[in-house]
Amino acid sequence: MLLDAAMECVLAVGVRRTTLSDIARTASVSRMTLYRRFPDVRGMLSALITREFGKILADANRVAAGEDTARRQLVAVATHTVRGLAANPLMHAVIERDAEMLLPYIMERIGTSQRMAEEFLRAQLVAGRRDGSIREGDPGVQARTIFLLLQPYVFAIRPATSDLPLEALLVELARLLDAALRP
Questions:
Q1: Is the dihedral of CA 48, 83, 58, 107 positive or negative?
Q2: Distance CA 89, CA 178 (A)
Q3: What gap in Å lies between CA 82 and CA 25, rounded to an integer?
Q4: Any idea which residues the entry calls the DNA-binding region (predicted)?
Q5: How high is the pLDDT of residue 45?
Q6: Which residues are CB-neighbours of 163 under 8 A, at least 6 positions away?
């Protein structure tokens, strides 16, 4: 309920103009109730992004479940996640109105959602070694490398698709990932 209210506010006015008072009013709760859970808007936004990313990743996992190898699952989840994030209203709002809020996650540190992505990638890499579909290598290094490859797709997908179709870029991304991971 609180995160839904935060989403509504961010979509309406952007992150910088959203206040905890706005969110409390939208959620029909007192500000104190909200402050007990989230000390500031940034913490709430972080929780909201983590929730949205978790939903997209869960959906991507369902889509990829039918793939016959861990490598194909990893590729399917990666491309489906990029597609999902590209279509996500929250990501659109943050990138369009408050892109500077993403800079710390590009330049300074790895956030919770980014760690979730890396952990998923690491698990798929290990599974791919077990089933013989992914080449040898340090799974931590490989996971970080794949993550660093995927991140610009999420942040720059709008200008990248101004003259090229998203699906064509995702097909090429899938080919690139598949080739890089083959034994």
A1: negative
A2: 29
A3: 33
A4: 19-38
A5: 85
A6: none
